[in-house]
């Protein structure tokens, strides 16, 4: 995106194509001498068998400024964990593969469950939370980055641009959110951002009025990206949602804990393509159907926490306003795609909007029906307060798994 627009809410760091990767890498190597950087990779075992992960591994093996890479491995049995250990041997950095399904890790989970602190459901949120805990236990990194493991268009410049704003000691940023154009295979992608989040935020502003938080979320060009970097000193108090609201939840935590000047978004890729979720219109517990519901709940929770009162009538009005707004935006996306030689299926897009409208209502009803729901995984500060030895024992369990299953 060749522009230099700033909207005044958060800083947008563009890629104006005036710096080489080699120059940026040299600076990052200099920063790393006094400010260690680590990378977290939340990974399903199945992603090791895709075409994306070998390329990501090849690119990361050439990154010189990382102190540590932590791989959170989900849905793996013992044989698959052994294979994952061997798979990641290609990394040149100090690295750890945490087998989240190991008997030792499950035992630690039971220990937390006894204290009422165990994450309510498995998934990316729990994976990221566990990896952050391991990193906090190491106590040797000042900067942390996270990116997904299904990026088909990955190259190491993505990581360099993502981590640079937080790693640079002359910059004020404590959180950097990555953004990019979601296009691939001649199509305009990013349905959930384009057809749910953007029109939902516009509709919320029309229905409940001006809110600084809504303007803040609208400032992000791709709020659902899985790529962000942050200073590790904010991790102990970070409340991570246990569902698909992870990305919105992290932005909400940055809003809650930091001044706007400490948050930025950074352009990290010219084009970005990854695994696409099914719409799953027949199953509200799967695919984009569930994702849309969880994202709506995350937004509603945050706005309610700031004092807004939601009623059934509010959600009915919001649905109608959202639906009309989404159709208006679809027209803009359609003409944008056509002008740039991309295809867009208007019927499929409208089907998605109809599904998202139902997801919005489902999220609203769930919100009203469960006023006592605790949607966040406990912060690591709370875990440490309840069980001061937990982080140490978690590190010991990961090391023991590594030693036993060579």
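Sequence proposed for the structure above (406 residues):
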């Amino acid at each position: 995106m060749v522009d230099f627009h700033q909207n005044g809410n958060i800083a947008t760091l563009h890629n104006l194509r005036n710096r080489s990767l080699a120059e940026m890498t040299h600076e990052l190597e200099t920063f790393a001498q006094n400010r260690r950087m680590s990378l977290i990779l939340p990974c399903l075992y199945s992603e090791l068998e895709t075409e994306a992960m070998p390329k990501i591994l090849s690119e990361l093996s050439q990154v010189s400024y990382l102190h540590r890479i932590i791989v959170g491995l989900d849905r793996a049995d013992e044989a698959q964990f052994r294979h994952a250990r061997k798979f990641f041997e290609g990394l040149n950095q100090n690295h750890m593969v945490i087998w989240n399904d190991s008997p030792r890790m499950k035992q630690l989970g039971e220990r937390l469950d006894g204290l009422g602190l165990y994450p309510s459901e498995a998934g990316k949120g729990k994976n990221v939370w566990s990896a952050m805990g391991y990193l906090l236990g190491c106590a040797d990194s000042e900067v942390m980055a996270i990116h997904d493991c299904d990026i088909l268009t990955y190259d190491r410049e993505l990581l360099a641009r993502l981590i640079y704003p937080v790693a640079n000691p002359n910059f004020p940023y404590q959180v950097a959110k990555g953004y990019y154009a979601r296009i691939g295979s001649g199509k305009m992608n990013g349905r959930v951002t384009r057809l749910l989040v953007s029109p939902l935020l516009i509709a919320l502003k029309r229905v409940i009025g001006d809110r600084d938080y809504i303007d803040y979320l609208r400032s992000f060009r791709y709020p659902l990206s899985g790529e962000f970097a942050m200073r590790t000193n904010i991790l102990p108090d970070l409340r991570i949602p246990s569902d698909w609201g992870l990305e919105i939840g992290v932005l909400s935590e940055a809003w809650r804990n930091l001044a706007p000047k400490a948050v930025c978004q950074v352009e990290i890729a010219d084009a970005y393509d990854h695994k696409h979720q099914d719409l799953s219109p027949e199953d509200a517990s799967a695919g984009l159907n569930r994702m849309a519901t969880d994202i709506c709940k995350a937004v509603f929770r945050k706005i309610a926490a700031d004092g807004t009162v939601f009623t059934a009538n509010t959600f009915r009005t919001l649905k109608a306003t959202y639906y009309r707004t989404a159709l208006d935006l679809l027209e803009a996306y359609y003409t944008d795609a056509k002008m740039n030689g991309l295809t867009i299926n208007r019927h499929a897009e409208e089907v998605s909007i109809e599904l998202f409208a139902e997801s919005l209502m489902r999220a609203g009803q769930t919100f009203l029906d469960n006023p006592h729901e605790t949607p966040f995984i406990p912060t690591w500060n709370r875990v440490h307060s309840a069980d001061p030895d937990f982080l140490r024992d978690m590190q010991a369990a990961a090391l023991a798994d590594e030693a036993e299953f060579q």
